[in-house]
Amino acid sequence: GLLSYAASYGTGYAGAYLERYGDHVKALVLDGVYDHSADMPTDLTRHILSVQDGFDRFGRWCTRDPSCVLHGEDVGKVFDAVIAKAPAVRTIVPQLMVLGRDPKMGLPALALMLAQVRDGDAKTLETLTGAASIASTAEDPALKAGKEGLQRGVQCSDVGPQADYANLLAAYKALEPKAPRFAWKFWDGTPVAHATY
User: Which of 7, 59, 65, 121 might form a disulfide with 75, Cβ 3.0–4.6 angstroms?
Assistant: First the structure.
C-alpha cells in the first residue's frame, strides 16, 4: 500500500485520494490540514489573523525575554517605523516569524533586524531578504508560469474567480482593525514581485 506525507494545501488532494482509493493506502500523514470547505474571504482572513497572532506573540516574547534586543520597547511601533524606512520588511516579517527562536532566522534575528534598520544598519535585513527571496522565488524550470503561477492556478481551480466584490470588501473591512499591520495581505498575499504574463 501507499505510504505518503501531505502538508498544507496538499492535504486536500491527499484526503481526496484517501477517500477514493483508501484500499491502496497503508499510511498517510496529513500535516497542517487545509480547510478546503472555507470560502476565499474566510480563508484569507484566517491566514492574516494567524500572522497577526504570530506578531503579537513576537511582541510578548520581546516583553518577557531580556535576550530580545527590543526588550522593553513596543515592537509594533518599532515595526511601523521600520517599514516606513524599508518597506521590504513588511513582507519579510510574516515569512520568517514562523521560525520560532532560531537565532539566525527566527524571532531573535527579526528583532535584531528591526533594531538595526531603525538605527540605519541594513546588514541583517540584507541577509534575511536574501534568505526570504531564495525561499520565495526558487523556481522550477518546468513551471512556465513560475512558482506563484502554480499557486494561483491551483487556488483559482479550487475556489474560482471571485464575483462578489462586496463580500470581499466586507470581509476585508472586518479584518482591517484586527490585523492593521498585515491586512494588506488580503489583497496581495504573495511576498514576491509579480511577474507579467
Answer: 59
Sequence-separated (6 or more) residues with CB below 8 Å from residue 80? 181
For helices 107-118 and 89-96, what crossing angle results, to 10°?
160
Does residue 59 contact residue 77 with C-beta atoms inside 8 Å?
A: no
Q: How many CB atoms lie within 10 A of CB 107?
A: 24
Using an 8 Å Cβ cutoff, are 132 and 191 in contact? yes
Q: Which residue has the cell 511582541?
A: 59
- Single out the residue of 56, 57, 12 nearest to residue 155, CA to CA: 12
Grid cell in block for residue 152: 494561483
pTM of the model: 0.74
Cβ neighbours, 10 Å, residue 92: 21
* Identity at 185, one-letter amino acid code: K
Q: Tens of pLDDT along the chain (197 residues)? A: 888 998 888 888 898 899 999 999 999 999 888 777 788 888 889 989 999 999 999 999 999 999 999 999 999 999 999 999 988 888 888 877 777 777 777 789 889 999 999 999 888 888 777 655 444 444 555 555 555 555 666 666 777 667 888 988 999 999 999 999 999 888 776 555 544 44
